[in-house]
Each structure stands twice: as C-alpha cells, then as structure tokens.
Amino acid sequence: MNIWSMTLKEILVTIRNKRAFIFMLAFPIILILILGTALSNNFENTSSIGKIHILYYEEQANSYTKPFHDFMAAVKKSDLSFEKTTKDAGKQAIAKAKADGYIELSNKGIDLYVNNTSGISASVIQGLLKGFSDQYNLISEVIKVNPQQAKQLMASSSPTQHIKYITLNPGKKPNSMDYYAVVISTMITLFGALSTVALVHGENIQRTADRLLLAPIHRYEIFIGKMLGSLFVNGICVLLLVGFSKYVLHTNWGNHLWIVILILLSSVLLATSLGLMLSYILQNSASARTIIMIFANTSALLGGSWFAIPTPGWINFLSPLTWENEAVLKVIYANDFTATIPTFTYNLGFSVLCLLIAIFSLRRREGL
Amino acid sequence: MNILELTKLTKKFGDFIAVDQLTLSIAEGEIFGLLGANGAGKSTTINMVSGLIRATSGEIQLMGKSITNNRHFAKMNIGVVPQDIAIYEDLTAYENVKFFAGLYGLRGTKLDEQVKKALEFVGLSDRHKSFPKNFSGGMKRRLNIACAIAHQPKLIIMDEPTVGIDPQSRNYILNSVRKLNEMGCTIIYTSHYMEEVEEVCSQIAIVDHGKVIAEGTKEQLKSIITDTKDVWVEVKNIDGLKLEPIQTINGVLGVEVSDNQIKINSDMGVNNLNAIIQHFITNQIEIHSIQEKEPNLESVFLTLTGRSLRD
C-alpha cells in the first residue's frame, strides 16, 4: 500500500510540474513538426523526368522492323516520342544532348546510343529496350522449337503481353513526418531519465527525504514507488505523443501498434532505470542531469534522431536509439519483427544493470 | 512513567564524539525543552531518537521498549516537526498531510478524518485545497506541523518550529504546542529563542559537548545561579564616572560599562541598591533608569556553557 501511495504521489507531483510536462510533450511535437517540414526533401521518393525524346534509324527493312514498330506504338502512350533520323544526325543529336536516345536497327541487331548527361531518361530507354529485346529473343527461341506457336505470338496485339516484367519493389518508405514521429518519440523516452532524477533528488531539495525516512516505510518501497511513478508518467507522455502524431499529424505507425508501443515502453524502462541509477550513485542532481543530457544527445545523434542514417555502423549501434528506431521502422514499414527481440534484450539488459547498481548503492547509504 | 529514556547514548562520527554517554529521562505529559548551542549534540540526539541515524552505543527506550528492536513501533509513536519545512510544493495542503499520514497505515474514512483534524488544528482548514507555494512562511510552518501530527503520535519532537516566522504565527504555534500537550502528547521542544522555552517548557535540559550539563524546571535551573544579580544603571553622561568607588560598595562583585550603561554584578544576599544610587547622586551623575534583573535561562546557559545559545 505504501508503494501505491508513493507511486500516486510521484504521478501527481510530476504532472503538476508544468516545465517537465511541456518538455516531455510540447517539445517533441514541435520537433516533429519542424524537422518533418524542414527536412522533407531528404525523404522524397519520386521525381519527374518529363517527356523522353528518342531518335531511330532503320538501315532497311529487317527482322526487327515489325516488332519494333509495334513496340513504339505501345510505349508512345507513356510520354515517349520517336522520330526517324539519319545515322549521322542521330549520333550528333546524342553528342549534343539534343535527344535522350538514338536507336539504330539493322540485321546485326539493335544499337542504342545515350548521352551520359541524360541520367534517368537514358536509364528508362535502356530498360524499355531491354524489355523489347527480351521479348524478341523469346519469340526467336519459340520459332526454333515450334514455328506455328511463334506465328501466334507475333500476331498478338500487344508487344508486352508475353513477357512477364518483374520489378523489384523497394518497399514502403517513411516520409519525413513519419520518420521524425518515430525517432523523436524514441528519443524523448531517453530524456525521461531527467524527470526520474528530479523525483529522487527532489526529496532532498524539498527536505522531505528525512520525513519519508521517519515514517514506517521501507527504503525499497520508496525506491519501487518512485520507479513505478516515473515509468507511468514517462509512459503516458510517450503514448500521448504517439497518439497525437497518429491522429493529429496523421503519421504512419503501421499495423502493429502494440509492438511499437512495447518497444517504446522498454525504452522508457531503460531511461527510468538510468535515472534511478544516477540519482543513487551521484549525490549531486546537476551532475546526474549533465550525464543524462550527454548520453541522450549522443544517443540521438548516433541513433538518427536528427538526421537519418541509411547504413548504421557499429558505433551507431552503441546507441539504444539505433536499435529502437530500426526495430520500430522495420515493424511499421516491412512488418519485419527480426529487430524487435534484440532491441528488447538490449533495453531490458541495460535496465537490469542500472537497477542493480542503484539497489547496491541504496544498500550502502544510510539516507534515502 | 517515562515515555523516553536515553541511557549512556553515544554517537561518534569518525573520531568526533557528537553525543557522549548522554543519559536523560522524559516523563509522559511533559513539554521538554532541549537547549544547546549549534554543535552541542542536540540534533544528533533527536535524529537517534527519531530513528534517522543509529547510535554508536547506548540505549533508547520509548514507552518501555527499545527502539532498536521495535523500529516500527517507535516510528508509529513519534512525530517529528523538522527545522526545515518538509512539504511538497506541488501537492495541496490536504494532499501533503494525507500522503504522510497514509504512510502510517491510516486508510479511508479514518485517514480523511485525521487529515481534516490536523489541518483544523493548525488553522489551515479553509486553505486545504491551496498549494504551499502560495502560503506565507508561517502557514508553511503550520502545515509542517500538521504533517507530523496527523497520525496522532504519543511523542512529538519539534526542532526549532518557529524559525523565521512572524510573531502572530509564532504565538499560534506556541499555543498549538500547549494544546497538543493538553491532548496528551509529550513534546520535546528545541529552540534558539530562550523566551519560548521559558514560556512553554515544563522541564528543560541543557546539552553541551554531547552531554546533559543541567536539567530541571526553569526555576531549578535559575536557582543554580541565584547567588548573584545584575543591576543595570543607564546614565545621561558617563564622563566623570569613577568605577573603583562602585566596586568598594558592599556586595558588588564586578562592574562593566557599555556606552551609557553600567552593569553592576552583585551578591544576591546583599541589599545594596540604595548605596549604588547614592554613589551616582554624590558624583552628580544623572540617572536615566535603573533596573535590577533576575537571572533568566539565557544567563543560566551563559554561566554553565560559557557561551551564548546563538554562538
């Protein structure tokens, strides 16, 4: 019962501390909005390439003529224009970057010329021509085995119908607002350690530590009460933040929200344990706060809270936020749970270590 | 019956002996004044009695039970009003008292009743929903008291409960001390204000260098130094005053001059006031006022310890 009284008191004291509450709620929302808006270009997935202009030259009527004309007719609908030209004019146009591609058709085969400066347009032409050649080769192979079947294939209306195009799906990716909603939420859990320090050292500052020790309450009841109070308040703050970003900012939290929340709560446990450990091993509140600020900011930097880190190295994985962000983003965008268990293990292991140190320190001292 | 008995109580911090074989008995129903200068061992003794620190050696018995083996019993029966105001600024007056009283096992209606009683006792019923940050110093001191008494302890230790407050709040607190005593509580009262101790305490102990050097009622303590008295003479102009003739007056033990005031220490058994006045008249020194002062606790303390209580 004393633990419950202690927990309830901590909850009341913390939620009435406006500064702490603003820091835990308003600050991350503002950060999500600012970073999500300011760095939106870094998360753009599509780009417009405009109309693609292609020149072609047919040496004479050859075996490619009919299939190629069918091909041109089919792809013209997709903002691609074809213009017949001469051999020299075609090559010069490419050299001067006046066309995106030049195709030469002869009995020997198909030659494609592109200008290196054409970039994506050149790649698109190459991809289309590769598709065409694959289809043509397929028909050639069919002729060798079954000429009757080949006729049917060549007579078919669409040039693309008999080739199965397989595109590599890059998967869903977060936009900037989605990304920062996740990484700021995980980051703010770490800063929750500051409020835990305030709860413990606050007893000394307000001179209530002795009054608590005078009462028939065990020091471990005080310890557990403080831990539960801090976990509750920091947990609620993170849940409110997730709720706000999901329903007001309409950010994506995926289809497995409860797993995401469990990961975030494990981070809250880590931060609370860290705060308790520093409170009990350091008598000075300012020192504890400084260490937490250094730890949380370094972790945020390494964990991609400010700028996304496409391929994190070993040093990034020293930060709990790298583990958490990777686990949460995988759950949201790939329904992939492989990083979830390692993240839980990391957070719980770190928490147990911190709590053991805190308990050991508590046992050695006479006061609170 | 003694509510508290300290026997050869000792506390050492390294080589420093803060409390040295202190022996003291406090009878039930007393308002017991504990006097001592800073560092005399008074707070250390209180901290050992309340269970904040452990004694190096010696025995503390509360209501006949050793507190070493009955910590829970001791905590349930002791209420401490600390010198520093120990309340939560972010909890209302009611919530503060409720939280601390709740730690003593009070629940439900009983808890609510006791909290209301305590707030009423200290005159904060009408401010029970207010936050202490909006309170005056005196109101905070009263809330500090309410937090210590809501669980109805048998022994209340008040450590400098009137520091830094206005005279009105001080009177309120002193009246509260008397009322608590009338309700059956035994009170240990420490203060730097000697007049407060004289006013409310029925029994007083003077502690110095970790030991009780004198103990008794205020009359008994004053009787220790009743062999002398002080006569204070304030004159208009001290020029021309010769001290040697005063010292030859029958019974005069010493003369001190400070500005226009002359303090004449004299034997209590000799009536020499007329001779002293005659000396000033003969020397044509105009007297503004003359006072014969009885010894007070301050002078007792000074005589016994050689220093002022505020040193």
From TrEMBL, chain A:
One of its GO terms (cellular component) is plasma membrane. PANTHER family: LINEARMYCIN RESISTANCE PERMEASE PROTEIN LNRM, MEMBRANE COMPONENT OF ABC TRANSPORTER YHHJ-RELATED. It is a multi-pass membrane protein. One of its GO terms (molecular function) is ABC-type transporter activity. It comes from Seinonella peptonophila. The keyword Transmembrane helix applies. Residues 20-360 form the ABC-2 type transporter transmembrane domain. The chain crosses the membrane at residues 20-39, 179-202, 223-244, 256-278, 290-309, 344-362. Keywords: Cell membrane, Membrane, Transmembrane, Transmembrane helix. It is found in: Cell membrane. This is ABC-2 type transport system permease protein.
TrEMBL record, chain B:
PROSITE patterns: ABC_TRANSPORTER_1 (PS00211), ABC_TRANSPORTER_2 (PS50893). Signal peptide: none annotated. Residues 4-234 form the ABC transporter domain. The keyword DNA repair does not apply. InterPro entries: AAA+_ATPase, ABC_transporter-like_ATP-bd, ABC_transporter-like_CS, P-loop_NTPase. GO terms for molecular function: ATP binding; ATP hydrolysis activity. Coiled coil: none annotated. It holds the Pfam family ABC_tran. Keywords: ATP-binding, Nucleotide-binding. This is ABC-2 type transport system ATP-binding protein. It comes from Seinonella peptonophila.
